Amino acid sequence: MTALLHDNGLLGLVLFFIFVIYYFVLRAPNICRNGVPLRKPPNTLPIAGNGLVFLQDRQKLFSWFVNCERQFGLETFQITVPTLHPGVVINDPSNLDYVFKNEGIFAKGDFVKQRSWDLFGNGIINADGDLWKAQRKAGSHFLSASNLRVLTDVALPRYLSRTIDHIESCVKNSRIVDLQLVFHEITSLLMGKMAYDMEMHADDDFTMAFEHASGVITERFQNPLWFITETITGSRFRKSLAIVRKFGLGIVNNAMDDQQKSAEPSTQLDDTDGGRLNTVSGSLIQSLLAALGSQQKLVADAALTYLTAGRDTTAQALTWCLYLLMRNKPAMEKIKNEAQELLKTNGIDIQQLGSESDTSSAVFAPASLPYTMAVFYEALRLFPPIPFEIRECEQATTFPDGTFLPEKAVIVWSLWAINRSKRAWGEDADEFRPERWIAEDGKLINKSASEFPVFYGGPRTCLGKRMAEIIATQVIATMLLMFEFTPAYEGKRVSKTSLTLPMKDGLPCHIKRRDMECI
Ligand code: HEM
Predict the structure, then answer these.
(1) Does ligand 1 have an atom closer than 6 angstroms to the CB of 455?
(2) Residue 509, annotated ligand binder?
(3) Could you tell me the distance, in angstroms and rounded to a whole number, from the CA of residue 61 to the centre of ligand 1?
(4) Which domains does the chain carry?
(5) Atom of ligand 1 nearest to the CA of 305
(6) Which residue in 305, 89, 134, 281 sits closest to 198, CA to CA?
(7) What ipTM goes with this model?
(8) Cα-based angle 119, 197, 163 (whole degrees, multiple of 5)
(9) What would the pLDDT profile of 265-291 be if each residue is shown by its tens digit?
(10) Is the C-beta atom of 125 inside 6 A of ligand 1?
(11) Are 66 and 388 in contact (CB under 8 A)?
(12) pTM check: above 0.80
């Protein structure tokens, strides 16, 4: 088809569109519930279907999903997009639960894989079967309880202290600080050291290239003709991919060198902080190498997928969290008071906060900071780091609500819209109200994966939820005890096009050091 387009220009294009319309629109079967075709969103066009909706800017697309959720409620509705198999949008938790529990039926499928292949290849997010199992096992080892203890006791205090030094020097020089960059730097240092034994930074060439490539991959999900438009507009994308691939192979080569160097295991037990961190350093990439063998490209795909899964999502969640807090001073105060009380109860001197010898990490655990966790969860609700999910039916099936899905049907759900459902969250669903997460006994309310699917669910549930929660509580509590933040921008912030939810133009802030004597 592509050759035809190149050789015969306009004629090729016309034939191509006829083919598309015939194959994907006129031939497309209607999806039914109890024998009745599903309803379609208003303004669905005869041939273009809902294709134009998906070409819109992402904020408009988010709003479209929210409006549909408010109009259809739990009812599953049909969407059609030229070049795609028939699709449905789901909002009903019982359907979501069915998807989570039947991952053999609902796979990423060709639709997702074709678009994300250039960036993730066979990395865990795209992999099925044995390849998925091997990467999941390697990840479970990396995120074991003992490694997470090294994260809380050694790695996070170390990198947090470095970040605080950086913020303090900006404060002294009255410089504006981009908090998105700050959080990205913390998670880059953490993941770089613990997962790959590498020094990684938020503003290195690799990160910039990865961000650009992720934006282009997302556009592929919105633009049905991406494979044509990219031949014209894709030169920066191809350069970015080359940088990302080179970086991925670099991680693997380093790890292979380390493997050879440490072929003779040391018999000395090093129980210092540095020693404990060194035992974890590179543990993810080493487990991936052990699990996947020496296929360098595959190991590099796996490593890069873990990097975006863990580093970007967590940094973005923290960014939106601080964005919401700056608009809600009482919530900031409550976090500060909660953290301060905890330090007092445990006899920890507040003056040592943020130093290399800071021991607050031992007490700043998610379970001890319910209000801080409530704020984090409320930020995840309003700004889910993975705002959309797409799956494809590997075989025909029927949802619990009676919707029959033929093989290859595409299932879409928008976390952005589900998390703003007035039916599920009340009339104030659009508002930031962390208290909705606190039960009468003061503990955090637990929601099932299908009610609050930000970390996915079932066998493929997010492996790093605990890691993200630990990082969030420590970082938020420490930062709010030490500093006051006010926005250095006007109006609202929005996200930029990406597979995840980075904030467009960052989160520039004025920061003031709190007088710790007076706290
Ligand atoms: C707030 C932070 C985070 C959020 C909201 C989040 C959310 C998610 C979601 C929605 C998925 C399913 C993605 C899909 O398959 O389409 C996922 C998968 C995954 N996440 Fe997270 N994640 C977070 C942090 C982390 C961290 C810190 C790690 C650690 C490295 C991590 C590792 C993974 C892995 C390995 C998977 C793939 C699981 C599988 O397919 O078996 N995530 N995450």
Answers:
(1) yes
(2) no
(3) 23
(4) 31-260+271-518 (1.10.630.10)
(5) 35
(6) 281
(7) 0.99
(8) 95
(9) 555 556 677 777 887 788 899 999 999
(10) yes
(11) no
(12) yes
